[in-house]
Amino acid sequence: MSWREVSLILPEVGVIGLGVLMVLADLVLPRKGWLVVLAVAGLMVLGGITIGAWVGGEAETAFFGTLRVDQFSHFFRILILGIVALVILASVDYVSHFERFQGEYYGLLLFSAGGMMFLASASELISIYLALELTTLPLAALAAFLRGDRSTEAGIKLLLLSALSSALLLYGMVLIYGFTGTTHLGAIATAVQGVAGEGLRSGGYPLLLGMVLLVAGFGFKVSAVPFQMWVPDVYQGAPTPITAYLSVASKAAGFAVLLRVFYVAFGQFDVNWGGIFAVLSVLSMTVGNLAAVAQRDIKRMLAYSTIAHGGYLLVGVAAIASGAPGPTGPTGVLFYLGAYALTNLAAFFVVIAASRSLGSDQIQEYAGLARRAPLLAACLAFALVSLTGIPPTAGFMAKVFIFGAAVNSGLVWLAVAGVVNSVLSAYYYMRVIRAMYFAPPSSNERVPSSLAFRIALGVSTVGVLALGLAPGPLMDVADQAASLLRAGG
Amino acid sequence: MEPSVVTEAVTWQGTGLLSATVLLPLAGAIFIALFLRERRLVRGFALVVITVDLLLSLLVFALYDSSEGGYQLVDRFANWIPFLKAEYHLGVDGISAPLVLLAGLLGAAAVWASWHIEERAKEYFMWLLVLQTAVMGVFTSLDFLLFFIFWELELVPMFFLISVWGSGRREYSAMKFLIFTLTGSAFMLVGILVLYFSAGTFSIVELTATAEAAKLLIPAGLVFAFLFVGFAIKLPVWPLHTWLPDAHTDAPTAVSVMLAGVLLKMGGYGIIRINVAMFPDVTRDIAWLLATLGVINVLYGAMVTLRQTDLKRLVAFSSISHMGYVLLGVASLGTVGLTGAALQMFTHGTITGLLFLLVGLVYDKAHTRHIGDLGGLASRMPFVASVFLVAGLASLGLPGLSGFVAEVLVFLGAFPVWGLATVLGAFGIVVAAGYILWMIQRCFFGPARERFAHIGDATLVEMIPVVALVAAIVVVGVYPRILTDVLTTGVSEILTASFGLG
Lengths: 489, 502
Description:
Number of strands of chain A: 2
Strand order of the largest sheet of chain A: 1-2
Order of helices and strands of chain B: EHHEEHHHHHHHHHHHHHHHHH
Strand content of chain B: under 5%
Radius of gyration of chain A: 21 Å
Oligomer: heterodimer
Strand order of the largest sheet of chain B: 1-2-3
Largest interface: A-B, 40 and 38 residues
Number of domains of chain B: 1
Distance between the termini of chain A: 20 Å
């Protein structure tokens, strides 16, 4: 281990250090508000360091090739740092009611973020596994943080099902290791390149089985159907800021590792694994959207909507680049993740504030919210319009981009499935808008919110609009990040 | 791989006149949202904004030089989304310039007609202004992505306007409108993406020249169909029309005016600008289908109109019938027929816009739209009754008023190509005479009724938009060249470029 290697993982080390600092500072700080200031300032510094590394750096490997720090990693580092900073800001009101463990709450969030960032750089199966565990364990604790019935159930469900998916993943990894003799993604790519046609028929099946198990394992993490059943209960039971965090950050990290494993290790492999993802994609969006229509609880509805959006994202994974110029699948996934993160956070932030004040997560309780909290209602409506994919929003550009990638790869049918599904989704998103704007309010009580919360909501909403009007810069950045994916690991 | 960041200089071309016409209402809406609270202030400001926008659209129409032809008044910013090579690109040609004028005219009429809106006036006027930007943008965009953004931008304002300020089953109707339109545009988006990846550009100008020659990822007929569905739902083409009667009936007056007057024309405009101009071969192959659908629209619409007992629903169904002529004119694929189709869009916009305004006035005062409950209103509201008669006569195609010119051109153009269809279509005029005159008779003539003894005629404020639209109908009826010269320029450019016809 050299200093150079440590400096490469400075953002990860920094985030975990910040997490430790939260727990310690909680013991001595009399006013907990400083925790948030400290955390956000620290995250901004780390974000700055990462941007510096992006601008200056070449792709480098560290720790015997277990980590590969390239622009793909930087993209996800910045994305996750941004998400965790926004979630921390939006948690302030929520957490201030906790009598104890405020520091631990922020600490666990940061530990998990550290795991996700490692995940984005991990280029070797064992370190991928370790990073996944580092991501999930704090999340399970956070899901159970409220210690009520539902919250405990959420935590346990998350823990058990991640354990199950990790087991599948491990088994898949073992098979792949057994077949190729290596755990490094780059080396796997070389090993499987010779295996095609005849080779596959004579004993290549363990490799295929390994890939299928990997798909299943990652399927749990990105909540693709049919591995989605934990999502609604966990999302409903967990503290709302944690739900928000799960829905965007976990998803982003899951897709980061999915893209890296499949595009780097199996990118040149002569098996049409894109087809598996295409099927999962159609299943996820259809099941997610249909189930969301029936929901009365806004958190459950957003949970199913998350599954549907996972389906749209899988369109990008399935769209293995055809070499044609223009948007490719991975670029689309990266852009979509950025756009989706801002949009979904904005939606969940409003739910955090509104539900606490309404005392309920039922959609019918949102009646007349536009009168009681015009700005909150407008932000939620705008976020829902973006989730539907109506311009001028980030969600629209993301859909153009990712369905465009599908068309570009010749998967026109998949793009059609996607757009038809977004029409379906309009029905349940608009129902919330209908409740907020067209129904009379049950009371005229205002919905209070803190400055930190308003900053978080403002940043995400403005981001959604900005990406809807001028998506160019993020598209370029996503393209740079994704182009390095294929340069080998 | 090289980073694909485009570093070329930021380039802007154009005078900004079209951009101002398109974006001024949106800017007005944002200003209202941020700074104005009081109802009268909001209303006054919205009126000023929309009137200026009307003047701008008049200026656009006046400045369009039909002897020169082509796209004019172009505003272009090439670096909007460099990664997708999407541009901010506006311009008008002979087909879109009159439609910009139409949108300006009816937008202003709609805001004027909203004088009495009390409930949540601030939001109401904001949404109306956003809607205006959306329709103006659709008619002027020369970049397909931009076109699509404006096309969808119209959804949210309409959803709110119908749901909050509508009547009857308004939430149902609004949702139905939204889902229908979204379905259409979803397929349109796929069509646009296929075109983009096949031809490598979003530019409508370039695609018009290259789309059919380009090696498409899927058969051209399928792309045509994807795009057509979006426009057909909007126009609306039978059997995709079922959203229209509901949306019209339950929308507030001003929104019905916009919906019938301008939004339906987005469909016709799209068919001409996109389907016909980009896919001449496919269009030629399926012209029989367009003619058939057109005739079905005309006759089905007319028959159903006869049976209506609600004034608003009646006018709504008559729109379906009249939009059939647009399809019939397009199917002729000749200068005369297409000019007729384009003119029909303008004249139907003004005539039906006027009819909806008048129905709104009747409803405001008589508090019913049920034809059976009305009667003898002519003595109580002579102004409304006489204008209603003018609008009705224009709608059934009386010579001297604008509807006649458009329909005659459609028939003249279509008869040599689709004889039977034209004859059947012309029968629609007869039915139109039936339902229009019968309606006017039942509502305005006959014995005066006791319960309407206290209602008055239109006030001065209410008269302003009515008079403006009547003027437009008469002027075009008496001197159609004011529009046909421009339209013919636009139409013949498409026919020459895409079909090789003079």
